[in-house]
User: What shape does this take?
Amino acid sequence: MIDHLGISVRDIARSKEFYAKALAPIGYQVILDFGMAVGIGAAGKPDFWIAQGDPSAKNHVAFRAPTRSLVKAFYAAAIAAGGTDNGPPGVRPQYHPSYYGAFVLDPDGHNIEVVCHEAYLG
Assistant: This one.
């Protein structure tokens, strides 16, 4: 299942304003704003990201996993398949306290992520 995706935009301020207005009718709004990256979504979950950069640049897609062990399994399999490390499995508290993800660049340089949102129970 797709968890979220991100695109690069030429002018972050202009694009933030555009998407906030264009997606408002479907309940989307700006949820996180890191300045050069903005998370837009509904019901408190940013699932569409825009980031300052070259619009022809590589893309980002994140797949959702039900457990942290599957995030680790993805990372190991992707590295073994020839992917390039772009962030090993770990908690990313800047997104939320239970955000556990791993990032790998595919053969074309796209940033592929698998994320688990479940709280770690030990």
In short: The beta strands are 2-9, 29-33, 37-42, 45-52, 60-64, 84-91, 100-105, 111-116. The longest strand covers residues 2-9. Residues 2-52 form a domain with the 2,3-Dihydroxybiphenyl 1,2-Dioxygenase; domain 1 fold (CATH 3.10.180.10). The CA atoms of residues 66 and 117 lie 8 Å apart.
